Fold this sequence. Notes:
Layout (H helix, E strand, L loop, with lengths): L1 E7 L2 E6 L11 E10 L3 H5 L9 E2 L4 E8 L11 E4 L2 E2 L20 E2 L12 E4 L2 H4 E3 L6 H7 L2 H10 L7 E6 L3 H12 L2 E7 L3 H9 L3 E3 L4 H7 L5 E6 L4 H10 E9 L12 H6 L3 E4 L4 H13 L9 E6 L3 H10 L6 E5 L1
Parallel strand pairs: 11-12, 11-14, 12-13, 14-15, 15-16, 17-18
Antiparallel strand pairs: 1-2, 1-4, 3-5, 3-9, 3-18, 5-6, 6-10, 7-8
The structure holds zinc ion (2 copies).
Amino acid sequence: MRTVVIDGPGNIRVETRPDPALPGPDGVIVAVTAAGICGSDLHFYEGEYPLAESVALGHEAVGTVVEAGPQVSTVNVGDLVMVSSVAGCGACAGCATQDPVMCFSGLRIFGSGALGGAQADLLAVPAADFQVLKIPVGINTEQALLLTDNLATGWAAAQRADIPFGGTVAVFGLGAVGLCALRSAFMHGAATVFAVDKVDGRRQRAADWGATPVAPAAAEAILAATGGRGADSVIDAVATDASLTDALNAVRPGGTVSVVGVHDLKPFPLPALSCLMRSITLRMTTAPVQRTWPELIPLLQSGRLDVDGIFTTTLPLDEAAKGYATAGSRSGDDVKILLTP
Ligand SMILES: [Zn+2]
Ligand SMILES: [Zn+2]
């Protein structure tokens, strides 16, 4: 089978490897029909995470079950499924909360070395009853792919931001996660959402969706627009030192900063005294994917939550290198890339 691998910064290629074996009696093999390129994949591409060996990339997959172990009960061979980007063991008390981040064995993410990459012809999925869901009626491929990671992440970011009804929210970073967070913030009762990104085209896209565009560093503008008070809630979908600092400066006293961006490996110098004196709540999580599905699927099916227009580009798997270059350009026109094996 073909799988997208990275050998070092900027070095993406499509490699032929042996087909994966069934990962135990509770696992399935999925023939991938669509895979996303995620902002977090770019941390490998841009050399922020050093690689000891090549890594098979990708953690957002939709496809057809082609082999299922005897213990799998929720899906059958031939089913079209989506695969959670974040995997738990599926059997512990942590996984019983449906949030794979709570797994007592530690979460595992596809395409980061621990599990196979989703940007491939085939993907081996352990504990499939926990990781995989048959795509419900009324959910299209792009929505299903966003449910495997970016929408679950943006939704969780809004849920954890303590957004008051009628409140003011700032979203930092207007890639796919930030745009999902923006829409989720409005669904959680925000009256005003400041949309922060250094790329003008991305701010414009957010403005088209009802947000107020602001260029970084945004704290000063957000303070000015809120009578010096600051935003009730800030969602940071970037998580660089600069964005975290800007987020902590833009939130009002007693407000919440909800972080879902993926930081690099270096420690962040938290201004702890300022956070203490202003009673700031700081929350951070990676995507609690499976927990969000019962909430998000009916909202998408009913049309109340709209995530159309987040995928901007579709390429065949063999053009993965072009897809990464496009995603890495972070232009206003190219937000999210879909690869089709
Ligand atoms: Zn991701
Ligand atoms: Zn577990």
